Amino acid sequence: MKNKYPFPVMTVHWLTFLLVVLAYITGGDPTVHLKSGELHVFAGVSVFLLFFIRIIMISIYKKDLPHNKPMSKYQKTLFLIPVLGWFTLSGLTESYQLFGVNLPLISNSWDVEIIGETHEFLGNFFMVLIGLHALAALIHHYVLKDNVLKSMLYFKK
């Protein structure tokens, strides 16, 4: 067992964080707010793809990971948020281009308002979890004085 995460795992972690923040600050109806909407959809699609990359990374680097739970049930919620966003977008429009490329949308008869509100609620809930996650890392670093935060940083502090 190591006390530092491998570089690719750290990269996926921090890239996911940046994309989640981008999705949060560009939230709204992407069919109305075109430029910020496109960034929001890009961030959501990217987080969705990074979810699978993270699973692959965990299996590749399993023996090199610090002894922490690799993926909590709350982190698995991250997978659901982009899926609900895709369902919502599919209900709002028949076609959507992301940087000039048509996204595959599904035909649905679900209540777009409820799905969209659930998407937004889970996104906000996840932002609260990210804040608690960051607070816990800072408590580990400054109060408990262990290496939990250092294990996810590129440089030694």
How are the secondary structure elements laid out?
Elements: H1 7-25, H2 34-60, H3 73-92, E1 97-98, E2 101-102, H4 112-142
Antiparallel strand pairs: 1-2
Helix pairs in contact: 1-2, 1-4, 2-3, 3-4
Overview features:
157 residues, mainly alpha, 2 strands, 62% helix, elongated
Report what the structure shows:
By secondary structure, the protein is mainly α. It has one domain (7-152). The protein is built from four helices and two strands; from the N terminus they run αααββα. The chain has a two-stranded antiparallel ribbon. A hairpin with a 2-residue loop joins strand 1 and strand 2 (101-102). The protein starts with 6 loop residues before the first helix and ends in a 15-residue tail after the last helix. The relative contact order is 0.14. The mean pLDDT is 89.
Number of domains: 1
The number of helical runs is 4
Average residue pLDDT:
89
The H/E string reads: HHHEEH
Trace the largest sheet across and list its strands. 1-2
Structural class: mainly alpha
- Any low-confidence stretches, pLDDT <50, length ≥5? none
β content, as a range? under 5%
Strand tally is 2
User: Which of globular, elongated, flat, extended, rod-shaped describes the shape?
Assistant: elongated
> In percent, how helical is the residue content?
55-70%
- What characterizes the major β-sheet? 2 strands, antiparallel
